[in-house]
Amino acid sequence: xxxxxxxxxxxxxxxxxxxxxxxxxxxxxxxxxxxxxxxxxxxxxxxxxxxxxxxxxxxxxxxxxxxxxxxxxxxxxxxxxxxxxxxxxxxxxxxxxxxxxxxxxxxxxxxxxxxxxxxxxxxxxxxxxxxxxxxxxxxxxxxxxxxxxxxxxxxxxxxxxxxxxxxxxxxxxxxxxxxxxxxxxxxxxxxxxxxxxxxxxxxxxxxxxxxxxxxxxxxxxxxxxxxxxxxxxxxxxxxxxxxxxxxxxxxxxxxxxxxxxxxxxxxxxxxxxxxxxxxxxxxxxxxxxxxxxxxxxxxxxxxxxxxxxxxxxxxxxxxxxxxxxxxxx
Amino acid sequence: xxxxxxxxxxxxxxxxxxxxxxxxxxxxxxxxxxxxxxxxxxxxxxxxxxxxxxxxxxxxxxxxxxxxxxxxxxxxxxxxxxxxxxxxxxxxxxxxxxxxxxxxxxxxxxxxxxxxxxxxxxxxxxxxxxxxxxxxxxxxxxxxxxxxxxxxxxxxxxxxxxxxxxxxxxxxxxxxxxxxxxxxxxxxxxxxxxxxxxxxxxxxxxxxxxxxxxxxxxx
Lengths: 329, 219
Fold this sequence. Notes:
The complex is a heterodimer.
Chain A: H1 3-22, H2 36-74, E1 76-81, H3 89-102, E2 106-111, H4 114-125, E3 138-144, H5 152-162, E4 166-169, H6 172-213, H7 216-224, H8 229-268, H9 273-282, H10 288-323
Antiparallel strand pairs in A: 1-3, 1-4, 2-3
Helix pairs in contact in A: 2-6, 2-8, 2-10, 3-5, 6-10, 7-10, 8-10
Chain B: E1 2-10, E2 16-25, E3 30-34, H1 41-48, E4 56-61, E5 64-65, H2 74-78, E6 81-84, H3 96-105, H4 111-124, H5 140-152, E7 158-162, H6 170-185, E8 189-193, H7 197-201, E9 206-211, E10 214-218
Parallel strand pairs in B: 3-8, 3-9, 6-7, 7-8
Antiparallel strand pairs in B: 1-2, 1-4, 4-5, 9-10
Helix pairs in contact in B: 3-4, 3-5
């Protein structure tokens, strides 16, 4: 036994047992769990994930709202019959209703009766209006099956033949403009989302590489004590997957909380002018299952991205060490 | 065990740091590698440890030609070579015990299978009381011994030590030297890179002196 060991022998017997017991405690992780770079990485990931999820939620909201507008408008068409000399308005309305009802794809055709027409005009002409005294156009509301709409061209032709003063308005122009506007809004939203996700990807990649830079000496030591590249890469990948998921989960949860709070706020303020305004624009502020699934996807992607970046950083680092050519050849 | 034949090495387009180096390290041998600062001792150790490739010449390690060793074979070969770095390279977030056990841990071995061996070795190098201490708390000599224990835990066939007494006082340097001699008696070949002439005078061993990029050997 050496002199070094002899120095220690005096206490060796007493030390052996507690030392052995202490050695059974949980081993320190290969990659240190927390450092400043690691905490900064979690913060960056959490913030970027939060912003990405908010953008995703906003795009989902706009897309759903646009599709809601489109469907609501496309659900109805109107037949307008203008009064003219010698026209039997009631007969013309009945004929128009009959023609419309006969078409496949029409769910119902309803004549707007005198009282309802008077109510429509009440804001402009006042109460107590006798509708027969004025040449007021009358309406037939045609409810349409959105999935298989009727042939509006033949309906228009038949109406022109039987009721010349009838005009069919299928709201096409209005729907087309709304659809164009909705599509533009969604396209813009998707573009913003793509930019946001790209910024997230770049931030996560660079923040991960920054955090990895502080671990170079660990990779080197592991390499020199005979660890295989696969082992080192796996250790770092697991560590950074956890770090990434932790940050992404915080960001994603914060975004979900924001959505829930908005949804709750809008439901709590129903029938107030502010909520009416918001509801008119964005529906009930709920992002639905697709939105929440999107948030989960963003969280998973960010976690995977962090792990993949650390993996490639380790592999590159190791291949740089292993090339081992002083002339770089 | 390790053979160099006309090995030359240059960094980039600079002059050759090592020129026509030829030697053989037999099993169970003991040698000092010496020379003035900047003579290329650490570079030669890196060649021995397979972390550098020569720009010319042949290196044969454990019967394998260095130029034919693949990246996947390196970890297995490195496990047969123990290295004590000049700057210790201990991981600060791991205790002395965990640092010494690291080579076994990275091989996927269960802690229960090596716990006793690690504790025995730590006692052998005189660190029995310091096994649960983190490296920043250790003294220079203790760090050095922890680094030596880590290099020895896998019972390597050869131990390379870069200035192992560079950070310790002369009495501790002598004790470390005795540790290396005892290790050599147990069958491990030892190469100690040092410019400490006093240390070399204490042992009658082969001296490999690097100077001006060339190597002279005094048996």
